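Minutes, project check-in
Item: structure for the 293-residue chain
Input as provided by the requester:
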Amino acid sequence: MLIFLAQIALPGPTVGSSVWNSPNVAAAIVAGLFALAVPTATAFNQWRKLRLANNELTKLSGSFEAQLGAKYGLSAEISSCELAIKDPDGGCAVTRRWEGLSVHKGVVVTSLPGKMVGSQGTVDGTGLELIHPVKGFNKALVLETLKNQGSVVTYRVQIEGWLTSDDPPLDFGVKGGAEKMFAMTKEEAVKALPHFPHEFMGISVDYPTKRLKLNMSFGGYFTAQPFPFVFMGFDGEVPYPNRDELTRIKAGFKANPTHDGAELIVDTPLIGLLYVIYWDPPKAPKAGAKATA
């Protein structure tokens, strides 16, 4: 198991009231309305009312996104993670990216903290590598590992001169790896996480984000049927599922035809939830036999 947390807290001075010390706010899910117009006065009036209602919902959606940006002070267009198993012992290579990261007026950010948490194995905190912003962002970024303790690594990306509302949106990323992070057999998965006896990777949503992307590859070491899932919380042992949100996001999930991985794309992910891809590794082979899924 490997999950990624933003650990967003008040990272720098603010102008006005604090936008960080507040409960999580769930993003609104706005359903579009549609009506088929037919050439009668009654039907036209019904269609017109529905059209006006749809316009109002669209306005409310945009207004709500703006309120979230003001409340949390920080928002992103895309938050993503690509992860691939790199060896038969469950080691992995991972790339974590943020696109279109911006702050609300009156807020400045001095650094962006992050955390990688595994259920086993070792995260190589000393080997983290910064993916620098593309041209157009003229402030330097510095990656600093704060804690490197076994399967848990915390880090932060320092921003020279702070990130302010006057800056262009920030795109950057962090690359890293881990050793013996994922269970490679079903028996190992059950032992590592008895309350959720599967392997998984995921990202928590800690501030307004328009789109979340997860991509997982088994690296050719085995095949398995992956699935999406959503946790309301995860204390390291017992997951708390959010099945309503799982129903909403299923359309954005796509497993590879070769059963070698999967992709999950979530539009308007909800703040405070953990979105994951999970799978069952193959059972351990008996003496002289091959592993089976």
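Outcome recorded: Helices lie at 41-72, 186-192, 243-249.
No further action items on this chain.
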